Amino acid sequence: MKEGIVISVSWRLLKGSMLATLPILGVEDPRAFYKKVRAIYHREMAALPEYGEGDVLKLNLAQAVMLGAIYEACDPKPDIDTLTRFYHEFLTRPAIVRKLMGRRDMLAPSEVQRQADIGKRSQRATHPFTWQFSVKVEDQDRFTATFTRCGIYDYLKSRGMAHIVPAMCAIDYDMGEISNHLFLRDHTLATGGAVCDCHYVRKSAATQEEWEKSQDDRRREALRGGRTLE
To answer: What is the pTM of this model?
Structure first.
């Protein structure tokens, strides 16, 4: 599977962050390790079939391939808490990422419509590692994206790494903290749920109950994923 310009540029932007955060995983020579990881990553990407017209979230799949490559290259293997902390620092460390996410309005009508359109397209998915989901709008301050397929889970499961998926799932809550929305989720496919139910609530309109539920959901998801609480 070819990277494409978006994925290629994203890795250039994140290279410095990865080198800076690899010591979290106990890596003593980040540059040599990075070279090894990139070789595994390119091997895996080359083995994947190309996306079709109905396949979505290609960048997310590339991130799963990269995390799988990192985990394969680690010796000894990090525990899920360490891997989650690494992935959080790796993705949120760059100022440009925080700036872009802070400016992104997930509840803007145009963004909600874009997500709904992507969801409709995903129903025609053909790739073995892609996503299928639908969007339900509750009101101008809330919507839910319900996923029946997750490319991250399916890919990492195929590599015998299903147990590390929660390290990536946790980033949804992190991005909500950076942005203008609360993120809530009761279930994930990666931890035995029938779906991933992703709820987005505008912070300025959120009730106290929704604020508390967001934190409770994060704690429960950590426990389901085998992680300890902060």
So the answer is: 0.94
Cα 100 from chain centroid (whole Å): 16
Cα(157)–Cα(114) distance, rounded to whole angstroms?
29
Helix (H) / strand (E) containing 132: strand 132-139
Task: Please report where in the chains the tokens 């299928």 appear, as a residue.
Answer: 132
Q: What would the pLDDT profile of 7-65 be if each residue is shown by its tens digit?
A: 999 899 899 999 999 999 999 999 999 999 999 999 999 999 999 999 999 999 999 99
Q: What burial class does residue 45 get, using C-beta atoms within 10 Å of its C-beta: 0-12 exposed, 13-18 middle, 19+ buried? A: middle
C-alpha to C-alpha distances, 46 to 69, 71, 96, 143, nearest whole angstrom: 13, 18, 29, 36
Measured CA to CA, the distance from residue 13 to residue 205 in angstroms comes to 34
